[in-house]
Design goal:
- The chain is α/β, with parallel strands linked by helices and 339 residues long.
- Helix 9 packs antiparallel against helix 10.
- The chain starts with 5 loop residues before the first strand and ends in a 23-residue tail after the last helix.
């Protein structure tokens, strides 16, 4: 059940009739609150003239932080939405929360214009397959694709699979249940320590300077996560987390002098995906809003790391990808004193 969850569906002129209404009905039947968000409050007719909808909110009235999930249906609407600055800003801010984003058919066009597809694996309507690839994404042809927070499908016939995958991401189903808060924190701390040690080791042995610098950056970032989580653990438990800490996130992989760049990138990409999924589950089960925001912040950072690494891998293999500086998201408001 999705009771208590709130989802935004972003629509515009010529939205795909079924891709907007079927997910909305599916979510509402399971207890979720769904808001239709338009570029304004004008009544809209679907691409095929079968459905007429009036948005619940205009984009300038919508706040990304109010929602647990976002869906962008296809049709002709994404072409209109992608040139609307406020809509792109809404999507960018929501993406940075680490919460589920669903795109159907032409929906990825909005993510392309928002600059969010580099390094991401996605599916879409076959007619925009090349646009998705040129944006730096890895395209797959399947009924539903789940890559971290992104859930994508190709066409209306895929909606049953899309709804199921999006609902699971929204509810946090399909993942191992977390233990109590302290045990979960201990696991998270172990993951960060393992990742930090692996990245620092890789930075010492790789022959490509640009990749060495990327892994140094990641090592510093993961050390920051480790310090933050350790301090939070100490505040809750009144003691430091127990040692030794295992390198669970990299599966105990040691760094040998002859490790290749491809091997290092594959291990790191897999690690960041797992870290994202773990923090999303911690966020879904957090006992307070501030804790939820903290773990969503960490989840979003891990997904950004994965995107950066995926771009490097694409370039290494001679593919097309957009150059992207490593970024570090701002600390969420009101969390400065958590540490």
């Amino acid at each position: 059940m999705l009771k208590g969850k709130r989802v935004a569906i972003l629509i515009g002129p010529q939205f795909h009739d079924e891709e907007a209404t079927i997910p909305r009905s599916w979510l509402q039947e399971r207890g979720a609150v769904v808001d239709l968000i338009g570029l304004d409050r004008s009544e809209l007719t679907g691409k095929y003239g079968r459905i007429t909808l009036r948005p619940d909110l205009a984009i300038d009235q919508a706040e990304p932080g109010r929602y647990d999930g976002l869906i962008i249906p296809g049709g002709g609407a994404p072409e209109r939405i992608r040139v609307h600055d406020q809509a792109l800003e809404f999507v960018q801010k929501f993406w940075q929360s680490g919460r589920p984003v669903g795109v159907i058919c032409h929906g990825p066009q909005v993510l392309i214009s928002a600059g969010l597809l580099a390094g991401v694996t996605t599916t879409c309507y076959v007619g925009i397959r090349d646009d998705v690839k040129l944006a730096g994404a890895h395209y797959v042809d399947q009924e539903v694709c789940v890559d971290g927070q992104l859930i994508s499908s190709r066409k209306p016939e895929d909606l049953p699979a899309f709804n199921k995958a999006f609902g699971e991401a929204l509810a946090g189903e399909g993942e191992d249940k977390l233990a109590d808060a302290l045990s979960a924190l201990e696991m998270a701390i172990s993951r960060e320590k393992g990742a930090q040690e692996f990245y620092a080791g890789v930075a010492e042995v790789l022959g490509v300077e640009a990749l060495r610098n990327k892994f140094k950056y990641l090592a510093v970032t993961e050390q920051g996560h480790f310090d933050q989580l350790s301090e939070l653990y100490a505040r809750i438990a009144g003691k430091k987390p127990a040692a030794p800490l295992m390198a669970t996130e990299i599966s105990g992989k040691s760094v040998s002098p002859d490790i290749t760049a491809t091997e290092a990138l594959d291990l790191a990409i897999s690690a960041e995906q797992k870290a994202y999924e773990y923090y999303r589950q911690m966020a879904l089960r957090a006992g307070s809003e501030r804790a939820r925001e903290m773990f969503e912040f960490l989840a979003a950072e891990e997904m950004e790391h994965k995107r950066l690494l995926s771009v490097d891998k694409s370039l290494l293999q001679g593919g097309q990808a957009h150059f992207q500086w490593a970024t570090h998201f701002d600390m969420p408001p009101g969390m400065e004193d958590l540490w």
